[in-house]
Amino acid sequence: MIKQITRRARSSTTNYSMSNVEDTRIAVIMVGLPARGKSLIAQKVVRYLAWLSISAKAFNVGSYRRADTPQPTADFFDTSNRDGERLRHAAAEAAVADMIKWFDNENGVVAILDATNSTKARRRWVKQRCDANKIETLYVESKCDQEELIMANIMEVKTTSPDYKGQDPEAAAKDFRNRIRNYEKVYQTIDEDEKDLTYVKLIDVGGQVIINQIKDYLQSRVVYYLMNLHIKPRSIWLSRHGESNFNLEGKIGGDADISVRGEMYAKKLPELVENSVGPDQKLTIWTSTLKRTIQTARYLAASPKGYDKLEWKALDELDSGVCDGLTYQEIADRYPEDFRARDDDKYNYRYRGGESYRDVVIRLEPIIMELERSENIIIVTHQAVLRCIYAYYMNVPQEQSPWMEVPLHTLIKLTPRAYSTEEERFKGNIPAVSTFRTKGSTAKHQ
Ligand code: ATP
Ligand code: F6P
């Protein structure tokens, strides 16, 4: 019985979040000169979709090319180099063939073909292959001619690429610049002749966005996500609320006040935050609508730095339904089957009359979108919600995310970098109970 409930809950949630995506097959075809952020965009889209339980995979043609030509020099990319042309085409063929196999064999939903696809002929060829296999195509062009930004991109990610392993960074940067020049000779931006294609052009990192012929819901979600991305340096701080009176009693849910020690953490929070935000940097505080997060953020909100503050219902703790206000021991006693079912599949288990982690992720989607658009944000929220947000940034698999330990009275700073997110933790050094429960235990918080 319990299993059935869980299964039904899962499919209804999927339908609610992304209508019939199971029937959709979309190849997102990246377009653009080297060092325009195509791989970064591809990786982010995969991470975002995977977080939403949509099967997604990037196929990087550069990795296929490296199998035969691990360390090419710029002239390899000159179109008058016949060997280079042949090997490059073979790499694109291999990536497209694997992509099609992935759709067929693994029920893939969104594939990203991460290559320059910089000529009209190449784009037509990819479209024909996809059309023949009933795969929709969405072209995403990143166009940017800001020389300074391109040089910074080269220094940030290209000099450390496997293409230049063991080489002097200055020489690597110079060679990469020449590689771009070779591409520039033949590059054709998507234009009027390609009006029949579904595409989005991101010009100057989203400064201007041109959208053409978007066809369905999932395509529009991907495009909306892309429109919100930016590359300005910034961080996201995450903190749970200070210890609450419910935490002290081992009870879950509720809307309790913070404890005396929770209050000490609230007073400490401005110092913890200000030590890691630059002196002239802006910061916006987001809390849930529950008392314990608002109380925890109140000294920070009153800081002379004049931080803005926003309360979000979407940041409220996972709703534990009929179990709200109970201890884990009480849940195990009153609803033993539910207790076991939750341990068996914590991500998908939905409390009677409440939510699952999967439900929380879906309601957090607008929060993630807003976070992508924003600069420095501190989020004061709850254990389950923090796990879900953290899982998005750190790419934590669904089986693991609900079991992550996120202690009270600890500030987590996440800084998105080109291909990863950097994490730092700052302890408040104020004692608190641990609310972490391992699988199978009913341990009271201590
Ligand atoms: P290549 O064709 O060599 O694989 P690429 O286009 O995939 O290059 P990335 O490796 O993704 O380029 O480059 C990452 C760099 O691009 C990062 O430094 C990132 O800050 C920057 N970047 C991200 N998005 C954009 C964008 N829309 N325009 C320009 N640069 C961007
Ligand atoms: O115990 C604190 C708390 O925030 C509860 O209110 C919430 O139900 C629980 O953590 C979520 O953690 P878990 O999913 O591990 O039960």
From TrEMBL:
Signal sequence, start to end: none
Keyword Phosphoprotein part of the UniProt annotation: no
PROSITE patterns associated with the record: PG_MUTASE (PS00175)
SUPFAM superfamilies in the cross-refs: P-loop containing nucleoside triphosphate hydrolases, Phosphoglycerate mutase-like
Keywords: ATP-binding, Nucleotide-binding
Listed InterPro entries: 6Pfruct_kin, 6Phosfructo_kin, His_Pase_superF_clade-1, His_PPase_superfam, P-loop_NTPase, PG/BPGM_mutase_AS
Residue stretches making up the 6-phosphofructo-2-kinase domain: 17-233
Name the UniProt record assigns to this protein: 6-phosphofructo-2-kinase domain-containing protein
